[in-house]
Structures are given as structure tokens and as C-alpha cells.
Amino acid sequence: MNFNWFLFSSPKTFYPLAGKIAPVCMFLASVLFLIGLYIALFVAPTDFQQGEAYRIIFVHVPAAWMSMWIYLVMAAWSIVGLSLNSRLSFMMAQALAPTGAIFTFLALVTGSLWGKPMWGAWWVWDARLTSELILLFLYIGHMALQSGIENVKRADRAGAIFAIVSAVNVPIIYFSVKWWNTLHQGASISMNKAPSMAMTMLIGMLIMALAFWAYSIGIALIRLRCIIGEREREAAWMIDLREDH
Amino acid sequence: MKILDLLQTLFWRDIQLAMRRQSDVVAVVFFFIVTVSLFPLAIGSSPTLMRAIGPGVLWVGALLSTMLSLTRVFASDFADGTLEQILLSPLPLSLIVGVKILAHWIVSGLPLIILAPLLALQFDIQAKEIGILTISLLLGTPLLCLIGGIGAALTLGIRGSGVLVAVLVLPLYIPVLIFGAGAVTASMNGMDPKGALSLLGALLVLAVAFAPIAIATSLRMALD
Amino acid sequence: MLAVNQLACHRGLSPLFTNLNFSLNSGEMIYLKGANGSGKTSLLRIIAGLSTQDFGTISWDGFDICSTREEYASHLLYIGHAPSVKEDLKVAENLMTSLRIGGVNPTDDMISEALSEVGLNKRKSLPTRVLSQGQKKRLALARLWIDHRRLWILDEPFNALDIEASKWLEGQLEKHLSRGGMVILTSHQPPNISPDKVRELSLSA
Predict the structure, then answer these.
(1) pLDDT tens column, B126-150
(2) Most buried among A88, B30, B68, C158, using CB within 10 Å?
(3) CA–CA separation, C83 vs C103, rounded Å?
(4) Where in chain A are the domains?
(5) Across the interface, do B90 and C81 touch by the CB < 8 Å criterion?
């Protein structure tokens, strides 16, 4: 996501480049995911408190990290788009949103699956899970806003403003939810009481996180190509491309 | 002095317009009253239960009522073309926006703040907590109007904007709700509400500083 | 002086106009022609600073209007298609607030005078809701009597006006041009203004 000098490029020049990078990312993602999965299932020791069920944190925690990270990146591209008026930045933000939402959903589902054997409930109002839920609302709001506006230029910019405003709000939301938890003292349950981190566990989660990261870049680039294809459908260079194939 | 004259004109214009369409304002107030009454009907009315849910219910009611009134802030000016003239005013648009939101709060938020203590009696909330509730609403409702203004400006003129505004704005309202209702609950549990109230105040200051700019940018985009 | 350079505007995928170049000096009027949908309203809104162009620059007295938006706005008066009046305000209140929002501070006498000019003084305390389309248009145009900022941008000002009101409007335009003002407007028929002051600009679809 740090293609610094390419962000000045037009969709036309970035389109083929994205096409080359995406498969590399996906391949990397698959490899890292398999390694991470191996560590998660076979290498990391069984926790004597939580048994085997805890292994789901190898998906839950990296997914939660990605959901937050992608929102930040979306906001960053939004800032770039608004200040430099570059269409590609807006398209990149639009391409990232669904992936971010999926990771948020994944974090919620895996959190739920972890919670059930742990505390007997499918949902706990713990600070992190609740914040993830609100983050999911924000992702959905962003996507609803962009698809609800017909004028593409306005949709991009409105989405950008919402992404920036809500990204600024995310730490505030997280802090307020934590405060809310302590206030209502339901908070003996906490996802942060994960088993004390053996080195292998940490490495496993990091590798999974990297796998998710590579996957995000890859899928976002693929989605970006679709978005470019749709928006630039009438452009001469796009018509040439279609005819060549 | 000229800037103040202009802002005053706009302020009084908005107040006058709201006064001439009283049914809109009254509808919002009634929505607040009815919504708040729905909760005891749904949950049960034992005194301990009422006291426990009271602050939350009142806050949710105020929040939803404020949200209902949001589309009105810019919609009428947008529809009859006067918003364009406002955008062409030589004054900075963020100042104009600030004044419009202030007028909107006086018309839509203040009635809720005045009513809330009366409704709080229905929930057997004590005098001290009613005071804290009022302060929390005094700090919180302008905050809701400012954040909501961003949603209203972003969705101006779009089909289905009523629901879309709710989807955008409700997640952003959550911290305000938490600190607002939480201040009262904290006091009821013997804790100091000052922490929550000062956080609310800090958020209000942030919103006053930055929301008008976001709203002004969104308005220009909507009319592009 | 208004200068427009290589202005281009797209709606959706097709261009409305491209490579538009012209300038407007004191005492000049541009009469913008073109078929419906050819982009006249879009061009006027871009010049007023309400819409942004897709390419090109507009400068006022040498400065790009994008960077001097509020300063530029203080020199222009834009009257669009919609009468831009609040239905719930009285006629005189509408004129007063719209002038004040534009930065002009008239007295009540000036308001009455302006309303008499357009034949609405007898109705000045009525809610604007009861006015006809033509009367609302005249109310919108009453601003021209008081607001003499240099650049007038008028979108179909003659629409819905009867003969008497049209003659009044033409008179106001002439006076504005002799004062050194500038006008750019669209209309279905060429306005009756001294031809040496008027240039025609055609937007072909």
C-alpha cells in the first residue's frame, strides 16, 4: 500500500501494474496463511486453562488488527484523494472498504466462537468486541453512502469525508466503550485475558496478520481493477484493451 | 460588525422559519415523549428497573429525536435554491454553518432539555441525578446536532437520505450516548459524574472546532 | 475582469464543453446561447464558483477564483433558475434576508423602493407562498435594483416575465453596463440591449 510515486499516476497506467502485483500478493498470502495455520494448529502449545479452543485467536486477533488497519488506510487514501484531487486514491479507498468489512465480520464471528466455549455465551459486551461491532457499522455506513450517491465525483468525496471523520472517531469510540465497560462492571470477561503469550503464539499471529495483509492488498488491487474497468469503460485505452483480448 | 450583522440575520431567519412551521418542532417533541414511554411498556415498570434504565432511555429518546430532525437543517434551503445563495455569501461558510446549527439546536434540542426533567420523574430519578441529566443533555445535544449536521450535509438531496443519515450518524453518536447516560448512571452508583461530563465537554469543543468545516465542505460538494 | 481559460466540463462520460476561452471586461455583456442541455447552466454555475470544472481556470482580476473564493463571491451576484425565495417568509423579509446574506445592508425604504420597481410593493407583507411564478421571479430580480456588485450572472432571467417586467429588466441591465458592470446571462431570445455592449457566445452540444 505504499506505492508512493504511483499514486500520482492515472488509472490507465496503474491498471496493468495492479494486474501484475495482485497475483504475487495472493500467492504470498496463501503461503503465509498455510504457515500460520500450521503454527496455530500444531506448533503452538495447548493452553492448560483454555484447552484447544483458544486456537481461534490466531484468526480473531489478526482479523481485528486488519479491520482497524484497513480503516486507517482508507482514511489515508481519502485524505490523499481530497488534497491532491486524484481519482485513483478514491478508487483505492472504495476497493478497500469491503475487505475491511469482511475482516471486521470475521473478527466478530471468531470472537463469538471463542466466547461460547469460554464463557458460555455467544456474545459478550467486551470492549474490543463491541468496538469491532461499531466499526462494522461504520464500514457498512461508508459503503452505503458511496453506493447511495449516483454522481461518482460526489460519491467519492462524500465517502472520503465520512472515512476521515469516522476514522478520527474510532479511538474515541474505543475509549468510550472501555469506559462504559468499567462503569457497568460486566467486565470480568475480557478478550484481553488471552493466554499469556508464548513466543510461538505471537509469531503465529504475526504470520497470520501478514497473510491477511498480503491478501488484503491482493484482493483490493483486483477489486480496484474492476472499479477502474467500470468507471473508465468508455475511455479509449480501456476499449483498446478489451479489443486486444 | 458587518460579519455579526450577517450572522444575526441568518440566525433570526432560521428561527423565524422554524416558528412558522411549528408542526415540525412539535412532532419531534411528541416523538421524544412517546418513545420514552414505550420502554416501560415493553420492559415492565418496577421502580428499581425504572431507575436503572431511566437515564439510558431518556438519552436514547433525545438522541433519536435529534436524529429525526436532522434532515430539516439543510433540506428546505436546498430545495428552494436559497442554499446556493448562502454558499455565495462572502462570509466563511463554516461560520454560517455554525450559526445554522445553533439555530437548529435552539429549536430542536432545547425543548428536549426542558422536557427531560419532567419525563425523568416518570422513572423515579432523584433531583441530583435530574440535574446531572440536564447538564449532560445541555452538553450532549449540541454535540449531536453538530455530528448529525455532517451526516445531513453528506446525504443532502439523495433519495432515501433519512435512513442513510441514521446509518452514518448513529455509530458516531455512541460515545456521546455512553458519556451522557453514563454520567447519570455513575452518579446513581455513587461515583463522580464529573469525569464523564468533562469528556462530553471536550468532545463538544472538538466538534465546535471541526464539524462546521466538515459540514461546509460537504455542502459545497452537494451543490457541485 | 473575468478571464476563462481552456474550460472543460463533463457530465457523466460525455463532455458538455471543452476548451472554452473568453474574457469579460467592464461594461460588457455576454449572451450565452445554446440548445437545451448544452451546458449553459453548468457554465454559469462554474463561473459563479458553485460547481467545479473538470479542466481549465477562471480568474478574476488576475487571481484564480478557486483560491480566492470568498473574495470573489463578494464581487458577484448570481440569480439561478430557481427563484431562491423562502415560501414561509414575507415578500419584504425575503428581499431583505437575501440581500443581507449577500453582504449588502439595505434600509427598509430601499426595500420598499425596490419592490415598487418590480410591482410588488403592495404585496410586501404577504407570505411569499401566495405569489405566482412570475411574481416570485420578479422578487428574485428585485435584488438587481439594490445590489450593484460588478459581475451579474443570470440564468434565464427573462423566464416567466411579462413584457413590462422584461422591459424593466433590460433597463436595469443597460444601467449596470453603463456603470461599468459586467453581465453574463442566458435566455431563449436575445435581450434588447445596445449591440455594441453585447457579445454572443455559443455552446454547441
Answers:
(1) 899 999 999 999 999 999 999 999 9
(2) A88
(3) 19
(4) 19-43+57-244
(5) no
